[in-house]
Design brief:
4-stranded mixed sheet; 29% helix; 4 strands; Aminopeptidase; alpha+beta; 3 helices
């Protein structure tokens, strides 16, 4: 997470921690990855939805349970206002999709549309 965009994200969350947070994963004394969490109010679900904007585990740490441990930790952090989690996965990332489905994520019945300004 060394890009200019990442610096902007860190600075935005540092100034406005109510918008989200960055979680770092450590394994064997090394940075193993990170997750960027953004929360928003959803009228549809009647509470906070936690968007997992990015989840990255470094190549040499994949398959070692780091992402699974992250989701277990995240579930323990849950409060009554959090009604669900959301994330996007690249259509070609079969390993990540299998993990997310194993954890309980399901494909939305809605298409996720966005417009970049």
């Amino acid at each position: 997470m060394c890009s200019q965009q990442s610096n902007v994200t860190y600075e935005a969350f540092d100034r406005h921690p109510d918008r989200g947070r960055i979680i770092l994963f450590e394994a064997a004394g090394s940075l193993a990855g990170y997750a960027i969490l953004v929360h928003f109010w959803s009228n549809e679900y009647g509470g906070i939805v936690l968007e997992i904007d990015e989840l990255l585990v470094s190549r040499n740490f994949r398959g070692k349970g780091i992402a699974t441990t992250f989701f277990q930790w995240l579930e323990k952090q849950n409060d009554d206002q959090v009604k669900g989690w959301a994330l996007q996965v690249n259509r070609t990332n079969d390993a990540a999709r299998r993990l997310y489905e194993k954890i309980g994520f399901k494909r939305s019945s809605s298409d996720y549309l966005y417009r970049i300004l």
